[in-house]
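Task 17 of the worksheet. Students: predict the tertiary structure of the chain below and write it out as structure tokens. Keep your answer in the requested format; marks are given for formatting as well as content.
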Amino acid sequence: MENNRDKVIIKTSIIGIIANVFLASFKAFVGIVSGSIAVTLDAVNNLSDALSSIITIVGTKLAGKLPNKKHPFGYGRIEYLSAMIVSGIVLYAGITSLVESVKKIIFPVKADYSPVSLVIIVAAIVVKLILGKYVKTQGEKVNSGSLIASGKDASFDAILSTSVLASAVIYLLTGLSLEAYVGALISVIIIKSGIEMMRDTVDEILGERADKETTKKIKDLIKEEPEVRGAYDVVIYNYGPNKNYASVHVEVPDTMTVDKFDDLTRRITRRILKETGIFIACVGVYSYNTGDNEASKLREAIMKIVLSYDWTIQMHGFYVDMESKEIRFDVVLSFSVEPMEALATLNKDLKEAFSEYTFMISPDIDISD
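Model answer:
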């Protein structure tokens, strides 16, 4: 499966390289012959796209290396580093293009288009539209952020080339030269694209909130097991595209034996991997009281106090040890409150209401619930 994904990414990237090199060559020729800065900058943009595809191939190859003792989770995150390099190239191309465009605005040079030049620009627009759709479709098929971004970028390039064509037509019909201004506009758009690509890549490297639909699906699948009353604290760890591990807490009866829980966790791991492609690396346990009416009443009363604050999102993992008079539970806190201050407030309120009990409250952050 992984090998097939890599083959699709590499094949698609090679097609992109070939197409962009040809387009860059033709546009550079048109730009030099006609003296059009906008067409020349469009050619530079195609060259940066080709270079981006080369880096995508290198990144995919390196990311496909097998796990080893030093890197037991593999090299998948290299794809994010290669995406960072690509965004840097795009940003550099945009800045240098903007500098050249500004020079042409200050010291204008009139362009001279021929019918052949216009035909080449039109052909380039058509090729970019087809290439963009193809690359984006392949990227969605194999879940490759790099290919999806390249496909969108190619489609966007077609729009930019259309603006170049429009400025050429306006010049031929009216004699009004908008070349340098169109070139500056293209440069600004390229810079914006580079910044957005870099921002998205940095978000992936830093770690983002797990997709809500994915965490809900994991919880729903786990809660279908007859022994499980609730599933909480789903944390997904990403080690590259399609390489996700996760941990989760499940709430089971206090009468459940270790061998039964072992069987449950293995069933959960197999099913989640089969239906989501995510490997559950750790299953933690919360126990709940069975056959104790007093514990149920305490839970309802304590939950009412805990959830009375706007910075508490959820309470779970509740258990009462009637013999030692100890109550333990987890509380999900919003990012608007300092965890230690929140716990101090909750402990104070609960101790005042239930002085005969001691409380063990564990704070959870708002990751997926």
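Marker's comment: DSSP finds ten helices and six strands in the chain. The beta strands are 230-238, 244-253, 279-288, 312-321, 326-333, 358-365.
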